[in-house]
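User: Predict the full complex structure for these chains.
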Amino acid sequence: MSLWRLEWLRLVRTPRCIALAGVFLFFGLVEPVATKYEADLVGRLAKGAPALPPPTAAAGLGSYVSEIAIVGLVVVVAVTAAAFGFDTRRGLATFLRTRVSSMWQLVAPRFAVNAAAAVFAYLLGTCGAWYETAVLIGPLPAGAVMAGVGCGAMYLVFAVALTGFAASLVRSVIGTVGVALALLLFLPIAGLYHGISNWLPSALINAPVDLANGTAHLSHFGPALSVTAALTAAVLAVSVARLGRREA
Amino acid sequence: MNAVVRTRGLTKSYGDVGLFDVDLLVPAGCIYGLVGMNGAGKTTLLSLLSGMRRPDRGTISLGVTRREVAVCPDVSEFDGWLSAFEVVDLARTLVAPRASDEAALSALATVGLAESADRRVGGFSRGMTQRLGLACALVGEPELIIMDEPTSALDPAGRAEMLSAVISMRGSRTVVFSSHILADVQRVADQVGILRDGRLLYQGGTQELIDTYLTPSWLLRIGGDAASVAAAMSCQSWASKVAPAGPDLLRVDATSIEAGERGIPAVVAACGARQVSCEPVDADLESAFLALTAAGRSADGRGAIGPTAAGPLAARVDATP
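Assistant: Here is the predicted structure of the two-chain assembly.
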């Protein structure tokens, strides 16, 4: 038994694993279908409305990306916040804190396992979306999609690290979720300022779609990838420091 | 004296409450009971010793490494989807990684949870969870165990089991435990520290506290004229108080045990009465605690330890090991 196995068991012995995989897979399988038949649905419901253009493969993937950028992100943040919520119960906090020599021993497994789970769920959902899109709408460029998925995965890893940082600010799990989502939502808003949007982690969210439809090249996301990696390391370091100084 | 725990001027302030200038001394191998009313600062002190909080002032010196210190909180909590074995084995991995898996099973057996090793902790009763916490502490073979209210919220059987477990550790390791149940402390602790309003009023031997702070008393049953015996007894210089306690029954308080043991029979004989029985009133820690805290309050408005508040006991805190 180890702290790493503890986090693995936390995922598989509780509904967390199912929730993560389920949400991403659900949208991966459903959204391309909705995109495929969106024009028909609109036509039937709003007679006389202008006909929508036929869906593209990139749009099929894009509808999935749009949903998991919100719902999927909330689930990732919630699962991670619960893992980082060891200080919400004093007895549990005492059990863990008095037996580790550094806070990194507690933070590292929580970050790594939850980041891996989030990325796996994202990949699972993307595979579902890719399959549905290919079958119903049309093929997607493999290289572009995989590169885009890599960017999206980096964003999720950052979201997990940011949730750990939020846990160092507030003790409660709900508070952690709120702070983390607020910080993540702040990024796209900050990106409205010209010049910095390409550098923010939020620029990575739509990378699979932009790369799939050819509106951007992978090098376009280089700045965002670099900043996201650096920010991930930075917030992890700050989390370790803050959690280490917290008094139970 | 070899001290496992020594604090100097330990202070943790939360405004008017907290811990103030505590000089704690815990000898090696003893069972040290920390007593005080709710809000006296027991949990704060133990949190400081365990490293869960940082002091505002003062120092803490441990005669053992941090890995040799095990902490049992007042309410043990674990992730409910883990089995008892997994919880204890996790503790073993963190504090004694070189110990085998058998150490976890052995610790569970010590606390009577061997048969529940594979059960999920979420289904445990409060008493079982407390015992699991003790198993987690024992698995690392600690030199010092810090226990916060280990018997709180346990039923009488659970309390007895927990206290027996604490007693069994005497001599092999040092135990510091807090409790507001003075009977528990009197039963197991050979050293006691009394906190009031965040200050250490007394620190030393449990029996010494009882002997020093309790007035020797006897219940004297007289065959004959109890009133005349009471009047004669009251005139004695060694008799601090004589009061009726029932028909033909007197309670006699003396200035010392010896004075009472010599004087009572002599007065009864001089009065020509019959001494049917003379039984000492049992001294207990609770009475001594109340007497000490009352003395502390009357001598010093803040109840702080000092030459007048604790009297000669203030000098009984050993300065050097």
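Chain A has one domain: 3-245.
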